[in-house]
């Protein structure tokens, strides 16, 4: 896969016959700092996501762990991490877990999101997502749960993405 292909958002949904996210993550894990490079690549693919500066720490079939450093750029007037930055982290965490796990001929789009803000988020926030394997690119809707925790391990946000999965364009009648 050419890096230029990865940087074009439509490449993931229309042009490749492989899972670009899985290929990029697996390849970059062989080099020091690969998770930082991968995180920046995801930010290039989804520029708004890049605004929070989160880093994908672990990624595998049905699992993602992503961290967000607490800094002024993501804080609100109450000196805690802004609700929208937390929503962005929920979406990023769930999306990379799902994207890594998809069959090569599948694509997805988030159709809805629910968030329960449990407590103020301060310090480094860690997002985790665990989902069962997606076995088929057949059009289907999936709930993708994401939990955000603070440094003490306390839950700050429980999130749920409602995600539509279907075949890539040209693979079958689609999304």
Structural description of this entry:
Helices cover 31% and strands 30% of the residues. By secondary structure, the protein is an alpha+beta fold. The protein has one domain (3-167): Thiol Ester Dehydrase, Chain A (Roll). The protein has a 6-stranded antiparallel beta sheet. The radius of gyration is 16 Å and the shape is globular. The model has no long low-confidence stretch (mean pLDDT 89).
Summary keywords:
175 residues; alpha+beta; Thiol Ester Dehydrase, Chain A; six-stranded antiparallel beta sheet; 6 strands
Could you give a quick summary of the protein structure above?
The protein is of the alpha+beta class and 175 residues long. 31% of the residues lie in helices and 30% in strands.
């Amino acid at each position: 896969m050419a890096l230029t292909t990865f940087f074009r958002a439509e490449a993931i949904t229309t042009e490749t016959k492989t899972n670009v996210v899985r290929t990029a993550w697996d390849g970059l894990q062989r080099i020091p700092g690969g998770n930082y490079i991968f995180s920046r690549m995801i930010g290039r693919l989804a520029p708004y996501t890049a605004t929070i500066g989160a880093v994908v720490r672990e990624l595998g079939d049905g699992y993602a762990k992503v961290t967000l450093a607490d800094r002024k750029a993501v804080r609100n007037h109450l000196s805690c991490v802004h609700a929208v930055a937390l929503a962005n982290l929920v979406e990023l965490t769930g999306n990379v877990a799902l994207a890594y796990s998809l069959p090569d001929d599948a694509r997805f789009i988030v159709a809805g999101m629910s968030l329960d803000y449990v407590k103020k988020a301060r310090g480094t926030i860690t997002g985790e997502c665990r989902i069962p394997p997606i076995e088929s690119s057949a059009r289907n809707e999936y709930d993708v749960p994401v939990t955000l925790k603070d440094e003490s391990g306390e839950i700050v946000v429980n999130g749920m993405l409602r995600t539509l999965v279907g075949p890539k364009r040209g693979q079958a009648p689609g999304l």
